[in-house]
From TrEMBL:
Top-rank lineage group of the source organism: Eukaryota
Listed Gene3D superfamilies: alpha/beta hydrolase
Pfam families: Abhydrolase_1
SUPFAM superfamilies: alpha/beta-Hydrolases
UniProt xrefs under InterPro entries: AB_hydrolase_1 (IPR000073), AB_hydrolase_fold (IPR029058)
AB hydrolase-1 domain span: 63-180
TM regions (residue ranges): none
Protein name (Swiss-Prot/TrEMBL): AB hydrolase-1 domain-containing protein
Gene Ontology molecular-function annotations: monoacylglycerol lipase activity; phosphatidylcholine lysophospholipase activity
Example of a GO cellular component annotation carried by this entry: endoplasmic reticulum membrane
Lineage: Eukaryota, Fungi, Dikarya, Basidiomycota, Wallemiomycotina
GO biological process, alphabetically ordered: monoacylglycerol catabolic process; phosphatidylserine catabolic process
Length: 302
């Protein structure tokens, strides 16, 4: 596992030393979070000669992706590094990849309220550097989908609409997750777990918290894109389809067929599993299509 000293050096995990900077974020309740700021590809200089003024300007002129990762480990996991690299490359975006309180080199102890404040800290950092809400994308994966929908709901309650909320492998709610969870994709959760302490410990991390994504989506005014792989054995794809269907007050469509006027979209992939769906080929391109003004035929399949 990466130590706090190693986390301060993103180049140790394969990110360009001229493209990625270690940044400490401050939360409103005085926690300190470890994060990386990955620059847009178009700004990268091979000699590292990028000024603070140029960096501030990219926040004004380029998208900013705030990435909230899954339930274990840190921003240095290989898939999370790949996500930051893909988003900065394909979207030519700033990427803020942060560790929640109690994770990695971040202070504090995790809680649902605390993790929402952590997402706010990343958002506040982007705003302080010159970003505007219409250029900010909240990207969550797994647990992170609950975090970003909590925060996006808070923004909507303040009348703030951002560029997009992107949910990779979301769950409807913790309750629904426990009802549908199957061990190894085969055995229902409510079989004896005494002989499987690691799975039990993993599930107990959710039990204290609600993370009601389905309820949040009804209160989010920003566009929302959901992505899920049909071979996800940790969070079944039915969660995303249920979320998709529940938004009856919005215009929905499967993303391969929808247009940019749609406020909600669904992308189903075949081989992304639980983790790779967020960085594998297709999601970034679909995000661009979802947020663009180019026309595509609309056909709501669900």
């Amino acid at each position: 596992m990466a130590g706090s000293e190693t986390l301060s050096d993103p180049a140790a995990f394969g990110l360009s030393p001229f493209k990625t900077f270690n940044v400490r974020l401050n939360t409103v309740d005085r926690e300190r979070l470890g994060s990386w700021h990955v620059l847009p590809d178009s700004l990268v200089s091979m000699d590292g000669s990028v000024s603070e003024r140029e960096i501030d300007n990219t926040f004004k002129t380029h998208p900013t992706v705030i990435f909230a990762h899954g339930n274990a480990a840190t921003r240095a996991m290989s898939g999370r590094v790949a996500t930051a690299a893909v988003m900065s490359n394909k979207l030519d975006a700033n990427v803020i990849s942060f560790d929640y309180r109690g994770f990695g080199d971040s202070s504090g102890l995790p809680s649902e309220k605390g993790l929402t404040l952590d997402a706010q800290a990343a958002y506040d950092y982007a705003i302080s550097r010159g970003a505007t809400p219409d250029k900010i994308i909240l990207l969550g994966q797994s647990l992170g989908t609950g975090v970003v929908t909590n925060f996006a709901r808070k923004l909507s309650s303040q009348g703030i609409e951002i560029r997009a909320v992107v949910l990779a492998a979301p769950f409807s709610s913790v309750t629904k997750l426990l009802e549908t969870y199957k061990i190894g994709g085969l055995f229902p959760l409510f079989s004896p777990l005494r002989s499987l302490p690691q799975i039990r410990e993993y599930l107990f991390t959710f039990l204290r918290h609600k993370y009601d994504t389905g309820d949040n989506l009804h209160a989010i005014s920003s566009p929302v894109l959901i992505a899920h792989s049909v071979d996800d054995i940790e969070i079944p794809v039915e969660h995303s389809i249920s979320l998709f269907k529940s938004q009856v007050s919005h215009k929905w469509g499967v993303l391969e067929y929808t247009d940019a006027s749609a406020q909600r979209g669904l992308l189903l992939t075949q081989k992304g599993g639980h983790n790779a769906v967020v960085w594998s080929e297709g999601l970034a391109e679909t995000m661009l299509m979802f947020m663009s003004n180019s026309g595509h035929a609309y056909d709501a399949h669900y």
